Amino acid sequence: MDYNIEIIDMSIEHVDEVMVVENLSFSIPWSKNAFIEEVTKNKFAIYYTAGVEGKIVGYAGMWQVFDEGHITNIAVHPEFRTSGVGSALLEKLIDTAKKRGITRMTLEVRRSNLAAQGLYEKYGFAVGGIRKAYYADTNEDALIMWKENISE
């Protein structure tokens, strides 16, 4: 199905809807307060929501630390996965990074999350290392993925 996906800056008014996506997406979800802090107090944080017909169906965030972008999370409501929402969010983060002078981006992803790894690889991210037992719920390893020279 083709959706008209609208990507906008996340604000505090979006947090309740973001929490629905967060809780459906992660076994150890962030708290509501964590998102409130990110969008109101963290000067390094950049967050977007993805909306379809006025409903938030995904979100993405990163921290800018000097010339690096660290993607903190990308999540899409299960009913909208494989519909282009994740791609639209990642494209927005990459575009924002370019405009802000970020030259490389990084993220961690579960070793078992092949769908997410495929998305990141599609946009030029490659595995650069492993964080052993990174995820507290299962002790699963995280793959550290990097996208270098993003301005090219």
Please give a structural write-up.
This protein has helices spanning 15-25, 32-40, 85-99, 114-122; strands at 5-9, 45-52, 55-65, 68-76, 104-110, 126-135, 140-147. It has 152 residues and is an alpha+beta fold. It has a single domain, classed as Gcn5-related N-acetyltransferase (GNAT) (Aminopeptidase). The radius of gyration is 15 Å and the shape is globular. The mean pLDDT is 95.
Number of strands: 7
Major beta-sheet overview: 7 strands, mixed
**Annotation field: number of helices:** 4
What is the helix fraction of residues, given as a range? 25-40%
Superfamily (CATH H level) name: Gcn5-related N-acetyltransferase (GNAT)
Order of strands across the main sheet = 1-2-3-4-5-7-6
> Radius of gyration over alpha carbons?
15 Å
Cα distance spanning the termini: 32 Å
On the 0 to 100 scale, the average pLDDT is: 95
Run of helices and strands: EHHEEEHEHEE
Could you provide a short overview of the structure?
By secondary structure, the protein is of the alpha+beta class. It is built from four helices and seven strands, in the order E-H-H-E-E-E-H-E-H-E-E.
Task: Set out the fold topology.
Blueprint: E1 5-9, H1 15-25, H2 32-40, E2 45-52, E3 55-65, E4 68-76, H3 85-99, E5 104-110, H4 114-122, E6 126-135, E7 140-147
Parallel strand pairs: 4-5
Antiparallel strand pairs: 1-2, 2-3, 3-4, 5-7, 6-7
Tags for this model:
29% helix; 152 residues; Aminopeptidase; seven-stranded mixed sheet; alpha+beta
